[in-house]
């Protein structure tokens, strides 16, 4: 599923050649800061009094991304419309939120650096993603949030990176309160998602070109009856 343009959003007319992108979701335990991350990313604000998300909420943002070719060289800029879904971490909402997993291509798997249990619960969240996502190995970035609370930290860097290796995903630490590496976390996920999208488009073009060539070879041009 791709994101549909919202016709009520007047600024859309200023973004020609906008590329609709798949949904991006945040998963993880309740109170790890998923909602705060999205608000920091989209609005550059932090509210310590955010209440836990009930069900599913979403935000959106338009960004410009530098595309890269297979050799890592910069390509044309892409204007992207992101839909950022925030899902509840409470157990009673898991069945509801799993419905949205099938429509997303990228996930931020968020845990709280001041709560060690939230890190180990990421194994269960990862299993849920792999069961319900659009493919067996969706693009996931493990995010350790609340890096600003150094005196309360319970998860050492080595422990977090070991979990990332176990889950076979990249790892980054953020602070929704200060904005530290929040955009970098989304960019890391977006690069992975768009690389897969671009690879799929290239594969599709190659397939179509091959099919056209085969079609032409099976239908050679008729010889002209003209004597000249």
State the gist of this model.
The chain is α/β, with parallel strands linked by helices. The protein has 6 helices and 6 strands; from the N terminus they run E-H-E-E-H-E-H-H-E-H-E-H. It has a single domain, classed as P-loop containing nucleotide triphosphate hydrolases (Rossmann fold), CATH 3.40.50.300.
Structural class: alpha/beta
Number of helices in the DSSP assignment: 6
Question: Can you count the beta strands?
Answer: 6
Strand order of the largest sheet: 2-3-1-4-5-6
What does the average pLDDT come to?
74
Order of helices and strands: EHEEHEHHEHEH
Q: And the CATH topology?
A: Rossmann fold
Rg from alpha-carbon coordinates = 22 Å
Distance between the termini: 57 Å
CATH class: Alpha Beta
Helix content: 25-40%
Strand content: 15-25%
- Largest sheet composition: 6 strands, mixed
The CATH homologous superfamily: P-loop containing nucleotide triphosphate hydrolases
Keywords: GTP-binding, Nucleotide-binding
InterPro entries: P-loop_NTPase (IPR027417), Rab (IPR050227), Small_GTP-bd (IPR005225), Small_GTPase (IPR001806)
GO molecular function, one term: GTPase activity
Protein name: Ras-related protein Rab-27A
């Amino acid at each position: 599923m791709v994101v549909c343009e919202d016709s009520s959003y007047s600024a859309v007319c200023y973004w020609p050649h906008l590329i609709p992108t798949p949904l991006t979701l945040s998963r993880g335990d309740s109170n790890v800061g998923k909602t705060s991350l999205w608000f920091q990313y989209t609005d550059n604000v932090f509210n310590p009094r955010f209440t836990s998300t009930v069900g599913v909420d979403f935000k959106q943002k338009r960004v410009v991304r530098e595309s890269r070719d297979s050799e890592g060289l910069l390509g044309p800029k892409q204007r992207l419309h992101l839909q950022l879904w925030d899902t509840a971490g409470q157990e009673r909402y898991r069945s509801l939120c799993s419905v949205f997993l099938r429509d997303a291509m990228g996930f931020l798997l968020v845990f709280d650096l001041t709560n060690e249990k939230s890190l180990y619960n990421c194994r269960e969240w990862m299993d849920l993603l792999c069961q319900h996502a659009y493919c067996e190995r969706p693009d996931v970035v493990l995010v350790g949030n609340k890096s600003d609370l150094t005196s309360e930290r319970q998860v050492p860097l080595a422990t977090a990176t070991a979990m990332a290796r176990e889950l076979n995903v990249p790892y980054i630490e953020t602070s929704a309160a200060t904005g530290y590496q929040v955009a970098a976390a989304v960019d890391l996920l977006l690069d992975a998602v768009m690389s897969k999208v671009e690879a799929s488009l290239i594969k599709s073009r190659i397939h179509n070109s091959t099919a056209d060539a085969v079609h032409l070879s099976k239908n050679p041009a008729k010889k002209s009856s003209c004597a000249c």
